[in-house]
Design a protein that fits this description.
Helices cover about 35% and strands about 20% of the residues. By secondary structure, the chain is an alpha/beta fold. A hairpin with a 2-residue loop joins strand 12 and strand 13.
Length: about 325
């Protein structure tokens, strides 16, 4: 496995989708009753890249977008957030960008996602082979990139190239059933990827999918540590998280917040978590910063626009001492 000390370079390559999120406006409006929407950058990988930049890191995105107005919107948004998008390739033809129509509601929140002929699945081996991997501190991938070809094979090629360059591999399981042909296929691919990675983060449902059994997710997480992984974070929603390392396990809770909606928590967690590790923080400190960032994002409108910067996250933690330790 790679040396996690390399994270200190704070320059990350993130593989996966960028999309457009349309939020029913004003907050609280149901989609079927909406007469106007606000647009924001979306897509799990793009959100993670934003979270990293907000925490003082550098991030580059590796993906494809549609060669149309929606794809151009995503490119402009990436520029606005300071994300390196030299490895984001517009795809001509009938490929379409990921589009999410979302409500800012906590109860019965609807999120309608359009993924027909998704442009990000068009990423090829040529795309990933054009990257200068030694220039980065780690490679971060989400599970969505693995759900279809040619993106899946391209991602595995990227993993091999990153490992050859000594980069730590970080895997956010990010299971989206609508992207996969079956849960069985997802389980097989996820297990293969996780076995290659140094840091794996997911929730209890996602680890259960990886294990292929609803009651064996935690066993799967522990098995990854036994197999050589350096850090595994097993998130359990309102019950907090169990963090596993070769030195042992510890539990943390969650920070209470006045949530507006359930979306964005996982992306904000991962960004703040990795940024804290890159700054030399302990695994416990990194988990707590990730948990605080998640609490902040669900209390704000949007996902990418809601990601806290370093000063905001520090201020939140200063006002919420010891709540999750």
């Amino acid at each position: 496995m790679a040396d996690l000390a390399r994270l200190s370079g704070r320059n990350f390559l993130v593989i996966g989708r960028a999309g457009m999120d349309l939020y029913a406006d004003p907050p609280g409006t149901r989609i079927e009753e909406a007469t106007r929407f606000t647009a924001a950058l979306g897509g799990s990988s793009a959100n993670i890249a934003v979270a990293l930049t907000r925490q003082g890191c550098s991030a580059a995105l590796l993906t494809c977008v549609s060669d149309d107005a929606v794809g151009s919107f995503c490119l402009a948004q990436l520029d606005g957030y300071g994300i390196d998008r030299r490895h984001v390739r517009p795809v001509p033809g009938e490929a379409r960008n990921s589009l999410a129509v979302v409500e800012t509601r906590l109860e019965n929140c609807q999120s309608v996602i359009y993924r027909n002929n998704a442009a990000d699945f068009a990423m090829t081996a040529a795309d990933v082979e054009a990257v200068d991997y030694p220039a980065f501190s780690a490679l971060i991938t989400t599970g969505t990139v693995l759900a279809a070809e040619p993106s899946r094979s391209a991602a595995f090629r990227a993993f091999d190239l990153a490992k050859a360059a000594g980069l730590p591999l970080i895997f956010d399981i990010d299971y989206r059933p609508y992207s996969w042909s079956s849960a069985k296929e997802a389980a097989q691919i996820y297990a293969r990827v996780a076995a290659m990675c140094d840091v794996i983060v997911g929730n209890d449902v996602e680890f259960a999918v990886m294990a292929g059994h609803p009651d064996q997710g935690l066993d799967a997480a522990r098995g990854l540590i036994a197999g050589g992984a350096r850090i595994v974070v097993y998130k359990m929603g309102e019950k907090g998280a169990l963090s596993l390392t070769p030195d042992g396990e510890f539990a943390t809770g969650i920070y209470p917040t006045r949530a507006l909606k359930p979306t964005g928590a996982g992306d904000s967690f991962l960004g703040a978590f990795i940024a804290a590790l890159a700054a030399g923080g302990s695994v416990r400190k990194a988990v707590l910063r990730g948990s605080a960032a998640a609490a902040m994002v669900v209390s704000r409108v949007g996902c990418a626009p809601a990601m806290p910067n370093q000063a905001e996250l520090d201020g939140f933690l200063a006002n919420h001492p010891d709540l999750a330790s």
